[in-house]
Amino acid sequence: MARIPSFLSNLWLRQNPKSLQPTTPQIRSRNLSVDQFNGNSDEISAQNRIFNLVEPNRSSEELGEKPRNPDEKFASVNEIAKEVSNLIRIRPRWEHTLLTDFPTVNFTDPTVYSEVLKQSNVFLSLRFFFWLRSLSDSSFDPVLCNVVFSRLVEAKAAHAAMNFLDSTKFDPEPWSLELYIRCLCENGLIDKALDVFERLKKSIGYSISLETWNCALSHSVRTKRVDVVWKLYENMMEYNVITDVNTVGHLIQAFCLEENVAKGYELLQQVLEAGHVPENIIFVKLISLFCKNRDYEKVSAVLNNMIAKNCSPGNDTYQEVINRLCKGGMTSEGFRIFNELKNRGYFPDRVMYTTMIHGLCEDKNLGGARKLWFEMIRNGIVPNEYTYSAFIDGLFKSGCIDEAEKLHKEMLDKGYEESTISFNTRINGLCLNGKVEEARVLFDEMNEKGIFQDSITYSSLIKGFSQQGKITEATYFFNELLKKGFEPSSGSFVTLVEKLCEIGNVKEAENLWVEMRSKGLEPAICSVNTIILGLSQQGRFAEMIECLRYMIGKGVRPKEKTFEEIIKCLYLDEMFDDALFVLEHMLKMGFVLRESICCSLVEKLCRDNSHLVRKSLDEILERR
Known about the structure:
Blueprint: H1 7-10, H2 41-51, H3 70-75, H4 77-90, H5 98-101, H6 110-119, H7 122-136, H8 142-154, H9 158-168, H10 174-186, H11 190-201, H12 210-222, H13 226-238, H14 245-257, H15 261-273, H16 280-292, H17 296-308, H18 315-327, H19 331-343, H20 350-362, H21 366-378, H22 385-397, H23 401-413, H24 420-432, H25 436-449, H26 455-467, H27 471-483, H28 490-502, H29 506-518, H30 527-537, H31 541-553, H32 560-572, H33 576-588, H34 595-623
Helix pairs in contact: 4-6, 6-7, 8-9, 8-10, 10-11, 10-12, 12-13, 12-14, 14-15, 14-16, 15-16, 16-17, 16-18, 18-19, 18-20, 20-21, 20-22, 22-23, 22-24, 23-24, 24-25, 24-26, 25-26, 26-27, 26-28, 27-28, 28-29, 28-30, 30-31, 30-32, 32-33, 32-34, 33-34
């Protein structure tokens, strides 16, 4: 990664970089005006070459025809090109008949084929170009190759342009290659663009424009190719490219992609101190990442920077902040910002109201959610399916089943149709309130109405039936979920495993685990805690230790209760070496063995081998 130099000394900024405006080389053309055509022999021979007029010894009078005006023939090249272009556009296999359709036209003359190429669409031009090549079986004028190549690039036909270069083996003009770089970047072919950069850097006396560098940086960020961003930036520094505020914006986004938000924020501060303001998206990216990291002090700082620089955060930005706060368990802070926005004169939209209602419902603040619901309606904002679902879900979670069903009926009366989301909300709500049979009725109704059942549908039923102790039904829905190719939610799988182990059916819990892995799914590792406890109660200590090893190997921290139960079972069965092995891992993970269990373990160990016990415990404590 390129080291970011001091901003003020090395990143000279300009606000409005000029667009690349290459001067396209002009194909040589002949003046077709009548005034300038005065019987010059060169012009007459050109006319003869175009139209195959090869009877110099016979005059028009001898043929009994009215004398031809050479101007008339020569001026019709444009008309001929239009006719040819029209024909190749409407006739599927024109290559076989074009020579006979226009027997007097010499298509290999540059004046003719350049006109045809200009008047056809880009892919027909390419087809016509290769047809001409098949006639002469020779290389074409590089200027004309540049014309075709440039047209492909302008049409964003990156793959066609690549194939054209491979087949013609010509060297495009540097300005054309620069446009090609942008075309490749816009098509997501970043690595190919890098190859062209290397090729273009060898062009003596040619400087790649800043707009092209920024284009490559921008698309590298979009495709999350941070490695390319730093490679390009190194090249820019090597060639002393004068950067601008957009360049810095791309670098900040690259830091965000690396989750190095501190470095991105530092660079933002540098660019602001230099008197420049990046695009709003740069502020938003930093805000999003600070929200993700729950660094709300920095979120506030970035928001204040936006306001100070007259980059007023939009509703989307505030919604991101509020959404992150609610998901991070700081719903009250999100609600405070929401109300502050209204006081500042902002008008929250339906999405923001929905986000806040959902957050309040998740926080069990049903009163606040209900207040916002009616406030939104008074402000003329009509709830949509997602708003209804968020509030209905909150009502179910608060045990207000009748009100939730009433609101669902209101949603249907408003013209909204049943959907997977609306059914899932009700099924999950009924299961939470122990009404699993009513939930199963809704599941069957989904089948009847042809509404798609997803993993959330099945997971809600698995968890609901498991919590009610109806293991047969829960297992049935679990197997159906796997048949559909879905993965159960962590909560539903753990609940089912816990209930199976509770009733002593540890083997069935293990089978579910194995079945999931055989289908390429990774079960929730935390469910192994439950299986370990079940195995310990059945005295299956070897399998219990193996499960523990599996958890530790996956980098998952077992529960303290799991460690204590294993140690207790092992020392009661006088498996002291295994008990000490587990104790060592427990201490390494920062847990402390309860005094009662510790005393029992030491007493057991000291009964026969007191001198070895002290040595073993000292070794364990030293390794900590």
